[in-house]
Design brief:
This protein is mainly beta. The protein is built from one helix and nine strands; from the N terminus they run H-E-E-E-E-E-E-E-E-E.
Length: about 140
């Protein structure tokens, strides 16, 4: 067994693996503030102080700048809600599904997949509309 192999294998350079995991963690962070704007053809997502992520709905993944670097991203409607997928250049993926509950609460379900498609984290975050006065 190679030193530091840890079972990941696949021939990926350990430094590339480390960079991919750091990039995935950065993109997967939970935002305190989220602005989601929808039109019939596009979606725009702004989290905290990062530049907005603008995507065409139902389009093939496209290369976009997310404030730190280039990533592949796509947005589409599913039975569960709006799904935004972001792929990290050296491996890993962040999949967000947004749904709206009665009362106006926005639910974000996030899956973070590190290298080789293994799911590392699943998180549910509930956002309330700013100024709604609710909980």
């Amino acid at each position: 067994m190679r030193p530091g192999g840890g079972g990941m294998g696949g021939g990926m350079d350990p430094e590339e693996m480390r960079r991919a995991m750091e990039e995935t963690r950065r993109i997967a962070g939970t935002a305190a503030r989220l602005d989601l704007t929808l039109s019939p053809e596009t979606t725009e997502l702004a989290q905290d102080s990062t530049p907005p992520l603008s995507l065409e709905l139902e389009a093939e993944p496209t290369s976009v700048f997310d404030g730190m670097g280039e990533i592949q991203a796509s947005a589409k409607w599913t039975r569960k809600g709006l799904k935004i997928e972001r792929e990290i250049p050296n491996g890993g993926e962040v999949v967000d599904t947004y749904t709206l509950e009665e009362g106006g609460r926005l639910i974000l379900r996030r899956e973070v997949r590190m290298l080789r498609g293994r799911t590392e984290v699943r998180v549910k975050t509930v956002y309330r509309k700013e100024g709604s006065g609710g909980t």
